[in-house]
Amino acid sequence: MRLKNGFVVREIAGEHIVVPVGERVVDFNGLMTLNATARVLWEKLETDQTEADLVEALTSQFEVSEDTAGADVKAFVSLLGEKGLLDATPAAQ
Amino acid sequence: MPLPQPSDYKAITTALLKRAAAAGLPTSGSFELTSRCNLACRMCYIRHEANDAAVRERELSAAEWVRLAEQGAAAGMLFLLLTGGEVFLRPDFLDLYLPLTQLGLNLCVFTNGTLVTPALAQALGQRPPNRTEITLYGASPETYGRVTGHPEAFAQAIRGLDLLREAGLTLAVKATLTRRNVHDLEAIRELAHARDLPLKTGWLLTCRPDGAPSEVYEDRLSPEEVLALEQTDEPTRKQWQGAREKKLPPPPEGMVCMAGKTTFAVNPRGEMSPCADLTQPAVKPLEIGFAAAWDQVRAYVLTVPPTPACRECDVAAYCNSCPAHQLLETGSMTTPDPYRCAIAHLRREAFTVA
User: Fold this and answer.
1) Can you give the pLDDT at residue B174?
2) Chain B residues with CB inside 8 Å of A68's CB?
3) Among the listed residues B27, B31, B29, B30, the one whose alpha carbon sits nearest the alpha carbon of residue B13
4) Rounded to an integer, what distance in angstroms lies between the CA atom of residue A28 and that of residue B245?
5) Is the pLDDT of residue B1 over 50?
6) Is B4 near chain A, with CB under 8 Å?
7) What is each CA distance from B273 to B54, B86, B262, B290, B298, in whole angstroms?
8) Rounded to two decimals, what is the model's pTM?
């Protein structure tokens, strides 16, 4: 899975804000703030990832158990999916 | 490990603007693309004739607006309002607008809706602004004739509104209320409600910052009429019933809003000021650079003195005056505005909770 195209992350006053651009506003008209954990996951999801990849990204950058990282990844992916930000189809090689 | 929880939009934007103001960033801008308008509202604060060639010649080009937006985004601008006059009077509107949709901005467009065509609605529908607000001036051709001088504009506005709605844009309806159309408020509310659209209303009008004449003093609601209206509007009633809790900032601050702290306005000639109601300092970002212009706007608002009479006033909590309005109404930034003073006194009488 990976993020759909059409989002930029703006850093403003220390906040990282996801902004839809162009045609993407049609199906996501809002703003999303990313905390430190979400930023790591967001950056990874700019290319095709599995949940295991995302868990590994968290455990390598933060002092957190695999179980906790796994739960956090599931929750984040679920949120992105619910908001329509994810493209579940693997990207073409 | 904490993850971001979905927050409501207003909470995110309010918090962000506060942080941006503390950091001195120009997060929220408005671009007045033109002062020209195809309507002739008696109370308008900006309008020039649609075919005024001299005024049109002084407007920034589409390329200049895009360049300004790019510089603004690089400096921290996130929210951008495109307004006028009537923005769709510009035949190059899409040349200006479409590049902005790629800059990572949250875009809002204000319009009277009368010049929306199916082709324009379709183009906007493909890359929509985050929000589009259409101002209605009445609920009938007769009222439109009395306020705007163009009775045919009512049907045009409704058609434009419906075209944009069918194209899928996120819309809100606004109504600017005067003595000539306030009787249409319920009908305007019904027009918005029938389309499942929110309605915003405004009625505190002031004269033109450029000093040209308008009929605003004849047409705006009297203080008593303002109160009669505010008492029927639930959000407004709630706002003023809680007013006793409002605290004024400590001196010497004169400008208490976000103007010049994180918001700014650029007029059709490319001059930047803290807000559309202030004609100073009118610095030119395209000539001196966006960052330098913003620094001058920030410095300017720090020079605005507080109004001594307001600091001692016992109805200050019920007042939403500001130095910009005081300047427009009295010629001085530090002289209380009699119109808003009268309204504040009436609010205290009407809304004080025993």
Assistant:
1) 96
2) 1
3) B27
4) 37
5) no
6) yes
7) 22, 20, 12, 12, 9
8) 0.94
